[in-house]
Amino acid sequence: MLPPSPPGWRLLRLGLVLVSIGTVLEASVQANSATGALNVLLIIVDDLRPSLGCYGDKLVRSPNIDQLASHSLLFQNAFAQQAVCAPSRVSFLTGRRPDTTRLYDFNSYWRVHAGNFSTIPQYFKENGYLTMSVGKVFHPGISSNHSDDSPYSWSFPPYHPSSEKYENTKTCRGQDGELHANLLCPVDIVDVPEGTLPDKQSTEQAIRLLEKMKTTGSPFFLAVGYHKPHIPFRYPKEFQKLYPLENITLAPDPQVPDGLPPVAYNPWMDIRQREDVQALNISIPYGPIPVDFQRKIRQSYFASVSYLDTQVGHLLSTLDDLQLANNTIIVFTSDHGWALGEHGEWAKYSNFDVTTRVPLMFYVPGRTALLPKAGEKFFPYLDPFDSTTELIEPGRQTTDLVELVSLFPTLAALAGLQVPPHCPVPSFHVELCREGQNLLKHFQFHDVENDPYLHSNPRELIAYSQYPRPADSPQWNSDKPSLKDIKIMGYSIRTIDYRYTIWVGFNPDEFMANFSDIHAGELYFVDSDPLEDHNIYNDSQHGELAQSLMP
Ligand SMILES: *[C@@H]1O[C@H](CO)[C@@H](O)[C@H](O)[C@H]1NC(C)=O
Ligand SMILES: *[C@@H]1O[C@H](CO)[C@@H](O)[C@H](O)[C@H]1NC(C)=O
Ligand SMILES: *[C@@H]1O[C@H](CO)[C@@H](O)[C@H](O)[C@H]1NC(C)=O
Ligand SMILES: *[C@@H]1O[C@H](CO)[C@@H](O)[C@H](O)[C@H]1NC(C)=O
Ligand SMILES: *[C@@H]1O[C@H](CO)[C@@H](O)[C@H](O)[C@H]1NC(C)=O
Ligand SMILES: *[C@@H]1O[C@H](CO)[C@@H](O)[C@H](O)[C@H]1NC(C)=O
Ligand SMILES: *[C@@H]1O[C@H](CO)[C@@H](O)[C@H](O)[C@H]1NC(C)=O
């Protein structure tokens, strides 16, 4: 018998041999512009794993994002709290874990379902910022009250690209010459409805807003949510040329591993529903997808990333042209990762590194880079097709583990706003508090070598993720169970050394996890098994560790 879920985490944590993360620096950064406040440009990408040049990917061409990284602090080990869109976005935008937002599916609005929690943009709005949303920032639908949490979060009505409505319609030209709702959907832009794509429209709108903001005196908070590389892979077909099929490898571990507990596996049902995948008649739940088609999925994912990179490039070069690069913080991240065939899995919906690990970087003028001199360009547009473009060296990096839930306090600190206090447990009645860490200490570069606190013990850092399941074996709704159908919760701890996951009984009526009711366990050591293919949870020699992690 155990208390409700948020304390459940505490219980899990109490059992750890690990101690607290240390006092967190509460001091705020003083804005360095004459007018005071720093603006914020928050770029949120949908389903982007760190397959980027700046994260060491040798194949993917992402020169504009790499250029941003070269002026930023890049987090090599950043993790989402649940690897699916709405729960992850509501979690990091409110700074609370899914056990507090009580959103594990797509079907409730936290303000009425869990608590009237403040959001990052709401906090900036209440502190005198003009806040604006372009594209997919909140997940659409009931999880943001069909309004992207307006009016609380935004100063103006959020913008959605008009061509968004074609994303799931039959706009992909098949080999038969007909239009289909395919997974692989390289398009000729002049050929698609409205002659444009959602991310192009979002970039254009964000640019219009930046131009407008230049003339207002107020600080602004602009969130831009890009759709690609979310499925379907609908992108300008020329980007395919960057990735000839013969150069595309399969995942290094394309088989479903022997020791994988069935409850951990996500059967990627959304992919199977696309017309081109249906035609392959792939067996449920384990597949596999024919290897030629696996290559094509990877090709289209990478091509979508390069297309996204050009949109980021246009946006950032405008920021530069408007001379806003010296007083605007830029954050670049994603809601979660995506499996590209690792462990025989596709899509998100799991607790593995491939789906929970996200790109995360912060550009802070004068802090992660010197201030640009008058007329100096930090972010000139780079053409991914230009093969003479050298790989841009990354800027500052840290391998310390961090969580997306820490975005809220960190952005507040970087902008010079008061950092919300730590949440009590439980915190359903508290509108403004934070469950994440203020990561400001990572931005204090002076005397880094001797900073006792920054290097106190990276082994103590933990990133938590979780994933719900309706059953012990994969079935039609294992990827996205509705709250009422959740029977098992997989709680996962990632440290610098290992990932440890236990799948325990869960009562959705009481939001109660039962840590005595263990359905399966997973343990992977990062050094010996970085891809998480050899589950050693049962291995007796690790029994002691497993025991110590238990409440
Ligand atoms: C940013 O650059 C513009 C143009 O060079 C300049 O007018 C402004 O004062 C600069 N702001 C800061 C904070 O350096
Ligand atoms: C929730 O918070 C918003 C923003 O602070 C406030 O306007 C609203 O009245 C609150 N609602 C309730 C039910 O407390
Ligand atoms: C959600 O939206 C509806 C319809 O616009 C509105 O009446 C309701 O007050 C909103 N809920 C909250 C908590 O603001
Ligand atoms: C494909 O691989 C070949 C051989 O390694 C290489 O020469 C070529 O540049 C690659 N093409 C692209 C577009 O990366
Ligand atoms: C671990 O033990 C459980 C219970 O005995 C068993 O069902 C499972 O298959 C074992 N897993 C591995 C990877 O050996
Ligand atoms: C699809 O697969 C099933 C089971 O492997 C097989 O019986 C059926 O004939 C296949 N259908 C097509 C159209 O290939
Ligand atoms: C928790 O699980 C244990 C083991 O299955 C069971 O005996 C106990 O009744 C469960 N507690 C609750 C509250 O369901």
Describe, in plain words, how this protein is organized in 3D:
It is found in: Lysosome. Keywords: Calcium, Disulfide bond, Glycoprotein, Hydrolase, Lysosome, Metal-binding, Signal, Zymogen. InterPro entries: Alkaline_phosphatase_core_sf, IDS, Sulfatase_CS, Sulfatase_N. Helix 2 crosses helix 10. The chain has a single domain (35-167, 184-269, 290-461), classed as 3-Layer(aba) Sandwich (Alkaline Phosphatase, subunit A), CATH 3.40.720.10. It has helices at 5-14, 63-70, 85-94, 98-101, 110-113, 120-126, 198-215, 269-272, 275-278, 291-321, 353-356, 407-414, 543-549, and strands at residues 39-45, 73-79, 130-135, 172-173, 179-180, 184-187, 220-226, 233-236, 328-334, 339-340, 346-347, 357-358, 360-363, 396-403, 463-469, 488-494, 498-507, 512-525. It is α/β, with parallel strands linked by helices. The longest helix has 31 residues, at 291-321. Strands 1, 2, 3, 7, 9, 12, 13 and 14 form an eight-stranded mixed β-sheet that branches. It has a four-stranded antiparallel β-sheet with strand order 15-16-17-18, covered by helices on one side.
| Termini Cα gap | 12 Å
The named CATH superfamily: Alkaline Phosphatase, subunit A
- What fraction of the residues are assigned to beta strands by DSSP? 15-25%
Largest sheet: 8 strands, mixed
What is the helical fraction, as a range of percent?
10-25%
Write down the CATH class: Alpha Beta
**How large is the radius of gyration?**
22 Å
**Architecture per CATH nomenclature, i.e. the level-2 architecture:** 3-Layer(aba) Sandwich
Our count of domains comes out at 1
CATH level-3 fold name:
Alkaline Phosphatase, subunit A
Principal-axes geometry comes out as globular
